[in-house]
From TrEMBL:
Keywords: Hydrolase, Protease, Thiol protease. This is Calpain catalytic domain-containing protein. It comes from Sphingomonas gei. Belongs to the peptidase C2 family. GO terms for biological process: proteolysis. The lineage of its organism: Bacteria, Pseudomonadati, Pseudomonadota, Alphaproteobacteria, Sphingomonadales.
């Protein structure tokens, strides 16, 4: 709700995106300042939101901000439901502002306006888009969404978004990000073995759940944690078996399949846009890598997959 000159004006989401105000409650629109005048300079507009192929996970490149849980989830949504990304962001040529639809902790939609200055600030902070690396103006949609998420967590956006970035950029939970982006916390898929269930059967069950989620268009992420070490490894000072993934990190899940040997493999994309300097003996410059699901289960390196809502 916007309070302007003592008059409470409410906006319906679809009408707002079309530029028409109505008297339907339910959305909060935090903005900086009250003016609707067009800014002196508009660097970013609707043409800069997406590349020629539309929203993609490849548009994500996490740099200085520790919000892998959020940007990896953005990448998962772009991969599975690019139209949902398009539907959550709009541009107003009159003001030069973007409007982003996110959700609060109860799943209620929140419309957050992002100004040109706030976008420039995100790039200066080396946020989650590729724009601050390439010097190009797009694809800018990850920076727009990330800025809106920081703004949601800032009690006084008028004085800058440092408080908001401090709140989101020091780690978080994958399900919180899924809810903020989609309005639904999604489902966690964890490895477990039932009574008298073999490891192979448990792996088949887990892989089947992840595969079904991806096949149904659900965005899926993987939350990784430090691998378990055996007592013998601890005594000898060994690291034990390493899965090659960054610990305490969140990845976009792109695929799960069986290889030629019949082993389940998970293809994940690192929001860093590279898998160098991980330090677990499997470094690669590629943003994506395949990891045996059995290794993730045996080492305990996979805390949980998070599967968001379907189309």
């Amino acid at each position: 709700m916007i309070e302007a000159a003592g008059v409470a004006t409410r906006f319906n989401l679809d009408s707002l995106l079309a530029g028409t105000s109505v008297t339907t409650p339910g959305f909060r629109i935090p903005i900086d300042g009250g003016g609707a005048a067009k800014p002196a300079e508009v660097r970013f507009d609707a043409a800069d939101l997406y590349g020629a192929k539309g929203p993609q996970a490849a548009d994500i490149r996490q740099d200085a901000l520790g919000d892998c849980y959020f940007v990896a989830t953005l990448g998962a949504l772009a991969q599975q439901r690019p139209d949902a990304v398009r539907g959550m962001i709009s541009f107003d040529a009159r003001t030069g502002n973007f409007t982003v639809r996110l959700h609060d902790g109860d799943g209620n939609p929140q419309l957050v306006q992002v100004t040109q200055a706030e976008l420039e600030d995100n790039l200066a902070r080396q946020g989650g888009s590729t724009a601050d690396n390439t010097g190009l103006d797009g694809p800018i949609w990850p920076a727009v969404a990330e800025t809106a998420y920081a703004k949601m967590h800032d009690s006084n956006p008028a004085d800058g978004l440092t408080e908001g970035y401090n709140a989101i950029a020091n780690g978080g939970w994958p399900q919180d990000a899924m809810q903020a982006i989609t309005g639904d916390r999604g489902d966690e898929i964890r490895y477990s073995e039932g009574f008298f269930e073999s490891e192979n059967s448990a792996l088949d069950r887990m892989a089947g759940q992840v595969d079904a989620a991806l096949s149904n268009g659900r965005p899926v992420t993987l939350w990784t944690v430090p691998e378990n070490r055996s007592l013998w490894d601890r005594i000898r000072g060994n690291e034990g078996t390493q899965d090659g993934l960054v610990d305490n990190h969140v990845y976009t899940v792109q695929d799960v399949h069986k290889n030629a040997d019949g082993e389940w493999m998970v293809t994940v994309r690192n929001p860093w846009s590279t898998n160098m300097n991980v330090g677990e003996g499997h470094d690669t410059a590629s943003a994506t890598m395949e990891v045996p699901l059995r290794t993730l289960a045996d080492t305990g390196g996979a805390e949980a997959f998070t599967a968001g809502p379907a189309r």
